[in-house]
Amino acid sequence: MPTHLKRAHPLSRLLNYGRNYRHKIRQATIYSILNKLFDLAPPVLIGAAVDVVVKPQESVIARFGIYDVFSQLLILTALSVLIWGLESIFEYAYEYIWRNLAQNIQHDLRLDAYSHIQDLELAYFEERSTGSLLSILNDDINQLERFLDVGANEILQVLTTVVVIGTAFFVLTPTIAWMTLLPIPVILWGSVAFQNFLAPRYADVREKVSDLNSRLSNNLNGMMTIKSFTTEAYEIERLRIESEAYRQSNRKAIKLSAAFIPLIRLVILASFCAILLFGGMEVAKGELAVGTYSVLVFLTQRLLWPLTRLGQTLDLYQRAMASTNRVMDLLDTPIAIYSGDISLPSSELRGEIILNQVSFAYQEGYPILENLSLKIPAQQKIAIVGSTGSGKSTLIKLLLRLYEISTGSITLDGIDIRKIFLHDLRRSIGLVSQDVFLFHGTVKENIAYGNPDATMEEIIKAAKLAEAHLFIEQLPQRYDTIVGERGQKLSGGQRQRISIARAILKNPPILIFDEATSSVDNETEAAIARSLEQITKHRTTIVIAHRLSTIRHADCIYVMEYGQIVERGTHEALIELGGIYANLWRVQTGEGQTFMFSNVN
Questions:
Q1: Same-domain status, 102 and 247
Q2: What is the DSSP string of 191-223?
Q3: For 47-56, 354-363, 550-559, which range has the lowest pLDDT when averaged over its residues?
Q4: Number of domains in the chain
Q5: Based on the domain organization, do 180 and 325 belong to the same domain?
Q6: Per DSSP, what are the bridge partners of residue 432?
Q7: In a domain, 525, yes or no
Q8: At 459, which CATH number?
Q9: What is the pLDDT of residues 275-317, one digit of tens each?
Q10: For 430, left (φ over 0), alpha (ψ -120 to 50), or beta?
Q11: 234: how many CB neighbours lie within 10 A of its CB?
Q12: For residue 137, which of 334, 326, 318 has the smallest C-alpha distance?
């Protein structure tokens, strides 16, 4: 969010988000208030009981024509049962609704935040750590849940207590009521002052815990690197620094929040002593009934002591508001890539791709592609080769609209891909990347990831086409074997073949292989090459390859350098041309002098 724009208050942002729950919020609020009203009734009953015992003929109940002490006490007993019963009922009601409301908002907020994250462009993730995003999705949203679970009810009940008891005091003893109510403005002012003072400190706490989560996430994902470089002690020290920063940030906030309650207690003590002393003197003078005095003493305690919990509630509130800002800032992050509105089902797609004068840069002033034009006929197999940074993999990301082109256009079957439903566009393309990502789960689940309704027969067929069935059958639980996080229990070649099987089972009209055979041995590569002959039939196929032997039979081969197509033609034509491709072919076949030519993008 731009720094020059003032954000709305986090509570306002939270209430605006939860507007669909207004009915439940009103219901829970009413139950909280009713519970507190019945909770404040027992002191009144105690005062009435004192009057019955001391002056039975002048008690409140005697005004209704009931003068027998036992009968009066029996009525008070019945009222006590009724009031305590209603208090318990409304306590159950507000607990049930507030807690479920907290769970529902937490659930929806997490899903909405995650859904919004999925709609953001790849550039957003490249600028942020996974741990930071996990901190928002888990810790910050849980912090909100804790506040809604407890804090909202606490605030409502404190406000109800102040209003009800304050009114009662002015009705019963207007001359000394101010003594009890005088500390309330001081307490409220102090609470607001503490809130404003603590807000930036809790915002810092949320940032520190985000940094800590980022460190933990990075280290857990890079455990193999840590072990292989024997940097365990170094990483422990870096984690200690992050954890210490979080601890110190929390310590500063705790130091201030912990001082709130003791200070409030001193203010409350002064008020309680005043009502105890001056109210007692009024009774001694005969200007105040004993029962009324009893009610005042009990109500003073009921009014002021709960305010000591205000510090804990505000502490919870401040933590929640800091978290709210982080979650809402995430939800307010603008989406750069919007879906089009033209439906293009895979069954109707021919697969002709045309790039017309396409330019793109990750950073302004550093173009990766410049005025690139390229036509890929439907159901043909084309290949792209080129050196590092030439823009090969970038081209694939633009086809999938993982990034938006700067200028020019890309069309699919004559339709600008920006006008096609993103789901339809990406559903029509099967990507097998060099960087294979497998989810923690079974081999079967990973192959069926793009087509979860696939039968076991279809999964096995796809695995056989990808030359994966044989090694899968040798795994401990075959297709039910857990592959581990990111597929770490499998070799690079095995992961690659499962990735190919996953793309096959998706059955898209367009297939893209981005260095798909870079992690397999020569024997597996040959097997995959044979299966590709079957896989790519009647599909538009784009192959980015390092090993030229896998693409020599492509319908057309494009050579990219510095974001431009510098050579194009069949394998034989490019060899005859004697340019970059021919030179690379001679190096790979041992026919020319060896030199370094890296084309991993």
A1: yes
A2: HHHHHHHHHHHHHHHHHHHHHHHHHHHHHHHTH
A3: 47-56
A4: 2
A5: yes
A6: 513
A7: no
A8: 3.40.50.300
A9: 777 777 766 776 666 666 666 666 666 666 666 666 667 777 8
A10: beta
A11: 11
A12: 326
Range of the domain at 465: 435-507
In which band, very low, low, confident or very high, does the pLDDT at 601 lie, cut at 50, 70 and 90? very low
* Contact present, 396 and 542 (Cβ < 8 Å): yes
Q: In what side-by-side order are the strands of the sheet with 415-416?
A: 366-376, 353-363, 407-412, 415-416
Q: What percent of the chain has pLDDT over 90?
A: 1
Which CATH number belongs to the domain containing residue 94 in this structure? 1.20.1560.10
In this structure, the answer to whether residues 126 and 248 fall within a common structural domain is: yes
CB 438 within 8 A of CB 487: yes
Question: 451: which 2 tokens?
Answer: 């087509």
In a domain, 71, yes or no: yes
Contact 515, 544 (CB under 8 A): yes
What are the beta bridge partners of residue 569? 557
Choose the final residue of a domain: 286, 316, 331.
Answer: 331
Whole-number Å distance between alpha carbons of 552 and 526: 13
CA proximity to 39, closest of 84, 94, 96: 84
**Secondary structure in 3-state letters for 491-505:** CHHHHHHHHHHHHHH
pLDDT above 70 covers what percent of the chain?
80
Residue 270 lies in a domain: yes
What is the rounded distance in angstroms from the CA atom of residue 206 to the CA atom of residue 135? 9
Domain final position from 281, 308, 331? 331
For residues 172-181, average pLDDT: 66
Based on the domain organization, do 48 and 171 belong to the same domain? yes
Cα–Cα distance, 388 to 343 (Å, whole number): 36
In a domain, 598, yes or no: no
The torsion angles phi and psi of 384, rounded to 5 degrees, stand at -130, 130
